[in-house]
Amino acid sequence: MSDKKKFTGKIGFILAAAGSAVGLGNLWRFPYLAAKYGGGTFLLIYLVLAVTFGFSLMLTEIAIGRKTGKNVLEAYGELNKKFRFLGYLSAVVPVIIFPYYCVIGGWVVKYMMAYITNSYGNAEPTSYFTTFISGVTQPILYLSIFLLASAIIVALGVQKGIEKFSKILMPVLVILSIAVAIYGLTVPGALKGFIYYIKPDLSKFSFQAVLAAAGQLFYSLSLAMGIMITYGSYMKKEEKIESCVRQIEIFDTGIAFIAGLIIVPAVFTFSGQSDSVLTAGPSLMFITLPQIFSGMKLGTLFAAVFFLLVFFAALTSAVSLMETIVSIIEDKFHLKRIPACIIVSVFSFALAIPSTLGNGIWSGITLFGMQFLDFFDFISNTVLMPVVALLMCIFVGYVLKTDVIAKEVEKGETFKSRKLYNVIIKFVAPAFLLLILGSSLISTFFK
Ligand code: PHE
Questions:
Q1: What is the pLDDT of residues 225-260, one digit of tens each?
Q2: Of the residues 40, 78, 197, 444, which has the maximum number of CB atoms within 10 A of its CB?
Q3: Average pLDDT in the 254-283 region?
Q4: Which candidate, 391, 390, 388, 426, places its Cα nearest to that of 406?
Q5: Other beta carbons within 10 Å of 10
Q6: CB–CB of 92/385 below 8 Å?
């Protein structure tokens, strides 16, 4: 592997990985879950799980990547021929997610532009959103812009593209989100929401809350998508994996926490001191928040900055997905980066079409009762990702043995959490992953 396919150093690696981790999940799901499961109580549960469960899984992926120096398709096979299938299974995940992530990224671009050019005006939020996403030309145009932006960054390479952009976008994202949160908290009435968000409500502690936190954490750290294996393979041997993982987690959790500071108080002020309109996902971001912005002083400016930061968060996540696929194509077909990027772009664009048209003219076509976008989301997030992570734990804990991972970590530093890591990979993480898989399957089919 040429030196250009390595991050230049620790900061570049951490910011690129944090760029992947900080995504839509931090912004549109974490605040909702935190508010639902008892504010401070949820934050505490999340923190405990982050430094144990999340830490161990992320460390494993990065170490596998760095040890093998291979893309995700080949990494598992390199360690053990019998587990080659796991590389293939993992590689399917970004291939499925990237196209529909571009569809949603396109929505973000549309809203960002609408607020920057002040063309959103006094539109009625629900019909504005549904009219837009059910169209043909506009959503395709915006998804193409988002896809092209990701493709350009990936085509520029690991150092000149991914690392360079992460080094600019991630610090800007932190500053913007802090600024937006501070402004939001000065709005009269916001304090009540702030207190609701951070004060532990122990009566809401439940097993369900623990499971929700684990599921969110798992997604938020971009695990089981091959991403951390790919980025790990670009890490230099002398770099300290354990401390990098800690810093990526601080970054990811910090932004999720700030997102809650922006969203929960705003929703409280808007809805008259309750969390009744707080939802998760697209309806929060593209309907509820625009409703709130329209009633705010300097609402358009606030919204423009907010969607700009959402755009940065989504873009760096999309880049990590695309890089994971591109690195496979480059190696498998011995292609240069640019042709590989073109192939992945064209293929992903084609796959994105059903996801976007499923919201409009193709809404009559469903798979297991789901529209295309929801179906792709279901297969990747609910089924494949927990299965991949579970198999990875079984493989590392019982076949490869955790010592191999520990050795890789110790190339850069003494592995401080080695004992804890062993227990988590062998027992705790598999149990959690099984529960995550089971509970999300149940909630999909027995709503
Ligand atoms: N970690 C991202 C988030 O929290 C999830 C993600 C990453 C999704 C990369 C797709 C690609 O939103």
A1: 999 999 999 999 999 999 999 999 999 999 999 999
A2: 197
A3: 85
A4: 426
A5: 17
A6: no
21 C-alpha vs ligand 1 centroid, how far in Å? 6
Q: Which two tokens stand for residue 337?
A: 């980066």
Phi, psi (deg, nearest 5) at residue 223: -90, 160
Task: Tell me the CA–centroid distance for residue 121 and ligand 1, in Å.
Answer: 31
| Annotated domain spans of the chain | 3-445
pLDDT tens digit sequence for 81-112: 999 999 999 999 999 999 999 999 999 999 99
Which two three-digit tokens encode residue 335?
Answer: 């292609």
If one residue of 26, 33, 222 were mutated to test the ligand 1 pocket, choosing by the most ligand atoms within 8 A of its CB, it would be: 222
For residues 292 and 125, what is the distance between their CA atoms, to the nearest angstrom?
A: 10
Percentage above 90 pLDDT, the chain: 78
- 217 pLDDT above the threshold of 90: yes
Q: Which CATH architecture has domain 3-445?
A: Orthogonal Bundle (1.10)
CB-CB contact of 252 with 22 (8 Å): yes
Q: By the 8 A CB rule, do 102 and 143 touch? A: yes
Amino acid at 110: K
Q: Of 94-103, 145-154, 268-277, 433-442, give the lowest mean pLDDT range.
A: 268-277
Q: Tell which residue, 32, 27, 54, has the closest CA to residue 173.
A: 27
Tell me the CA–centroid distance for residue 97 and ligand 1, in Å.
9
pTM of the model: 0.94
Concatenate the DSSP letters of all residues of 373-392 into one string: HHHHHIIIIIIIHHHHHHHH
**DSSP at 6:** S
Host H or E run for residue 294:
helix 289-294
What are the helix (H) ranges across 187-274? 190-198, 207-220, 227-233, 241-270
